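Continuing the batch. This is chain 6 of the set; chains 1 through 5 are on the previous pages. Same settings as before, nothing changed between runs. Recording input and output for traceability.
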Amino acid sequence: MSDVLVYVQHLLGIGHVRRMALINEALRAQGLHVTVASGGIAHSDLDFAADDVIALSPCKTSDTGFSTLVDADGNVLGKEWQDKRKSQLLSAFEATSPKLLLVEMFPFGRRAFRFELIPLFDAAKEANLPIVCSVRDLLVRKKDIRKTEWMRDIARKYLDAVLVHGDPNLFGFDRSFEFTDDISDLISYTGYVAPKMDSNDLSGGQAQRQGLLVSAGGGAVGAKLISLAIEARSHSKRFCSSIWNIVTGPHFPQDQLEQLGKQLPDGVVLHRFLPDFRERMAGAEVSVSQAGYNTLMDVLATQTPAVMVPFAENGESEQTERAKILEKEGVISLLDLDGLSAQSLAKQIDNAKRPSGINIALDGAEKTALIIAGKIKGKV
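Output for chain 6:
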């Protein structure tokens, strides 16, 4: 038995898992039992912060365009695998007997998994369970309007709530979803899902911070940024003698990791993963990274000077768009990977300033948990 069955599927990065882990922690703080069903490639460093985790037959994307689902060895997955996954997911639903179903992104993303999620929604509807979608503030826009219409129609048919992890004081869901008005009665803004930092973890002033933190999210992409950052150290005027911690991410290709390790200059430390990543960021002089949702939230929560280079391959607009908005607010320094050099990166790192003055809600995990607890208890 479980109070909440959470479905989350990571394909390229691990941002979805990190955001959902914060929500799961908040759900458990409400006294709710949380079971996660996940079908991403397993990694020992991934923590869903759940009471139980059900591993579905794993998959990942074959490329940054999310064109094909493959297994851990790169083999294309077809109908037989889909049938197996659907059976596993429905069995998990039956075994856990949840009081509420919480699905990350779908139908606003993860369309490739409709083969198992529509049957799951049908099962939840038959059991008269609330179905809630957890979705970030910005979507990747679709060129085909019919796909966006499909998102609206599925949301209208199945969902009891759409919890948007953003703050309308910054921008609303309608910025990237044309049919927001058609589902406005379902939408609740939770604020951004950001880590709660203990005051002891936050440096009181910039002078107390030491070293740089360079990260590439999950590590499936970001090799060029990491290479440029390592080279930029020698060009930095402020931080050429500081320790630069490079975090490649759990999915960074092993051969590239080994190659980097052979040519690291003094003062550069290579990590695949840091369990205390947020605490490290809170104590860093500057953070250099891509511009994923979670990294931006870490920057805001820790008030760390940040230089960001958004992931923007194959039409991925979400990171760039959000980062541009926050750049205008003076939160980050924003760079484009195209044409970026070690020298220009070093200059931006030297000039990075601590974010200040932005007033947006960062208690999205707690607000999400309160809404879900209320639905389970029949209060909302």
